[in-house]
Amino acid sequence: MDTHAAPVPAASGAAALRDLILRKLTYTLGKLPSEARDRDWFVATAMAVRDHITERFLKQMQETRGREGKHVYYLSLEFLIGRLLRENVHNLGMAEDLRAALADLGVTPDQARLAEPDAALGNGGLGRLAACFLESMSSLSIPAFGYGIRYDHGLFRQILRDGWQQEFPEDWLSFGNPWEFARPEIRHRIGFGGEVVAEARPDGSEKLTWQPGEWVDAVAYDTPVVGWRGKHVNLLRLWRARAPDPLRLDAFNRGDHVGALGEQVRAEAISKVLYPADDSPAGQELRLRQEYFFTSAALQDLVRRQLRQAGTVTTLADRASIQLNDTHPAIAVAELMRILIDEHDLPWAEAWRITRGAISYTNHTLLPEALESWPVPLMERLLPRHMQIIYAINAEHLDAVRAAHPGDDALLASVSLIGEDHGRRVRMGQLAFVGSHKVNGVSALHTGLMRETVFRDLHALHPDRIVNRTNGISFRRWLMQCNPGLTSLLTDALGPTVLDDSMRLEALRPFADDAAFRGRYAAAKRANKEALAVLVQEQTGVRIDPAALFDVQIKRIHEYKRQLLNVLQTVALYEAIRAQPMRDWTPVVKIFSGKAAPGYHRAKLIIKLACDVARTVNRDPAVRGLLKVVFLPNYNVTAAETIVPAADLSEQISTAGMEASGTGNMKLALNGALTIGTLDGATVEMADRIGAEHMFLFGLSASEVEEKRAAGWHGAQAVDASDTLAEVLEAIGSGVFSPDDHGRYRELVDSLRGNDWFMVAADFDAYVAAQQRAAALYREPEAWRRAAVLNTAAMGWFSADRAIAEYAAGIWGVPTAS
User: Fold this and answer.
1) Into which family does the record put it (predicted)?
2) Which residues are catalytic?
3) In degrees, to the nearest 5, what angle opens at C-alpha 701 toward C-alphas 695 and 706?
4) Which residues does 319 contact at the CB level (< 8 Å), separation at least 6?
5) Per residue in 11-54, pLDDT tens?
6) What distance in Å separates the CA atoms of residue 798 and residue 365, rounded to the nearest whole number?
7) Residue 795 near residue 753 (C-beta atoms within 8 A)
8) pLDDT at 253 (0 to 100)
9) d(CA 190, CA 48)
10) Structural domains in the chain?
């Protein structure tokens, strides 16, 4: 922390802010303005802004000391926070002062902002949701902590070499992080391995004590999270792994200079990389170590706070609400039981009451591979005491089921915390369900499917436990910050209250019929498209026309998200334009961006196919610029902030029943993109509010997908019925787009003719028809603009503020700011 700067002035305008930035540059960074680079100006500016946040936070602590209420503790393996300068300045209401302050110093806000690294501490929607939710908790004045891992390297940096994804470390911390406060005094010891020993108590009972064979320290780093208009500040506390003894001096002095660092390397690997590949036993162990590491640190930290404030752990459930963001922190159920029983000598029944009363669990997926399970031998070796506790929880749980349903062995096997199907494994989703007082899905469709599929039998046993909390997004970042042109238009039309109450957007509906307003709305969109065109040319060298329809699919590359379906339709459109040059085609720019998991070969092959198609299409003079295809590399929050406001068409084309909610769908529609999509996830609820007539919906429903799978569907049926699909698959499979390797995509094409699990072939013709409807409407500019305005007007309900208010009222039991 900077000890040289004077306190932040009580009334700080542009001049005071300028002086504070200059002091930071001089005394903290040791730089003269004449030699400062953009990075230096960013760090100095961030530290000055952080001082303002800190002043508010410390004042808030003083005002609430002695009357602390219930806290929310949000445990997430991912926090995709992105760049923070613009968000913090915006929420503090300092944007104009900062602009003037930097101008006096000969710097622009963009010089400072663009020098900030993008903190990619997440993989996609789950991590971005966690970041939005933390900001909303601050905006609603809910006392909260976010808990996660301070990864040295977040999600990998994606480089495309000849269309193939390659992964490189993302060095977001290479120049330090000016937003955070290192808290070396806040550290918790995390154990692994060892044994459990039995000790006799004076009353003759037995006490089990875990004696770990290995220790790792979790060291805290706090990043303040400021809410809208600076009303409240919460903390994101991220843990860094450190070895208790960083150097084995005896080994070093013997000449084993590398071996002396072995314990440090093993310990620090825990917080080294987000999502290490887990397709090997060592990778699986590291992933489990990560999950237990941050979960144990968080629980030890909140129990310490509970003892400091209340003096006892018995009231923990009344003072703490612990939200598990997916199954990654599900080990919290066993860890909290261990802390309460082993360290605080609570009876089992009381510890279980407290644990279930404090913990709630958000499920984010129905995909079997994402509902984590761990091999029992790995758990017994790495976390032996927790395995004992899980066995005890399971025995008590199954006894209750057996008593209510005697003789039903199939039910017992279904709801057991230990699965027996593919070797004995601990089912973390079941553990989280049994150990929580509430379990929520993240869209109405997803919650219903949870009740019917993955948790069907547990839901039958506990019919009141599963509730729905449809996801939401932060309008501060995804409208006000990334689309200032549209925001200004909305405040002019609806008044400044729209900045505080997203539901005021409903009043925008009549403006859809106002030709002058539609013109201003279109002008704002055009400016955003021009900005994206600049970014595309800088990153890919491809020139795109802002007048064309910008068709955008930005998300993690996965077969169920069906980027492949989009590529197939792109090929079909390409072939049609070449075959029928006389037609009045709608100019289209297909924009793809997203990362594939390093070990996901099929997803990487889809990226390569998209790049091969782009190369072929963009070089073909016969297309006459009517179709352009680009794949933007290294998708992240910063890229999304440019792409989202510029999109005309939002691709939400997942296989129905497989997307839990989606949040990109909300961001794009809020910014006036029309959705082309299946009735999946929260798109169903968006259609209810926007009106299906203002979207391009197509394809099988979730129930129809299941019916086809049950009936043994094969994609060859769709290929035989569609000349267009057959021609597209023949072109791809024969090497038209891969002349250097004619067989590159043969296996991919064969899979579509075969199982077609993700219904790509099944939905192809319906998707092509929906694309044709979209292209036709785009040729009617006034009708398109009207639909775009109505999309924006309908999105007020999909705010993270609304979602968090629902969590607070129905799950956490905490009040929110009025």
Assistant:
1) Belongs to the glycogen phosphorylase family.
2) 364, 555-556, 561, 663, 667
3) 160
4) 68, 69, 70, 71, 306, 309, 310
5) 459 999 999 999 999 999 999 999 999 999 999 999 999 999 99
6) 19
7) no
8) 77
9) 35
10) 1-65+100-115 (no CATH), 68-83+118-469 (3.40.50.2000), 491-691+701-797 (3.40.50.2000)
Beta bridge partners of 674: 649
Instruction: Work out the number of other CB atoms within 10 angstroms of the CB of residue 131.
Output: 27
* Chain centre distance of CA 790: 27
Per-residue burial over 322-340, b = 16 or more CB atoms within 10 Å of its CB, e = otherwise:
bbbbbbbbbbbbbbbbbbb
Q: Are 355 and 336 in contact (CB under 8 A)?
A: yes
The number of CA neighbours under 13 Å toward the Cβ of 441 is 26
223-235 pLDDT, tens per residue? 999 999 998 999 9
The number of residues making up the chain comes to 818
Report the sign of the C-alpha dihedral through residues 371, 375, 380, 383, in that order.
negative
Q: Is residue 503 very low, low, confident or very high in pLDDT (cuts 50, 70, 90)?
A: very high
Torsion of CA 363, 364, 368, 372, to 10 degrees: -60
**Amino acid of residue 432:** A
Residue 31, helix vs strand vs coil: coil
Q: Read off the tokens for 49.
A: 């802004």
How far is the C-alpha of 774 from the C-alpha of 565, rounded, in Å? 16
Q: Which two tokens stand for residue 217?
A: 């320290």
Q: How do residues 159-168 score in pLDDT, each as one tens digit?
A: 999 999 999 9
β-strands 359-362, 233-242 pairing:
unpaired
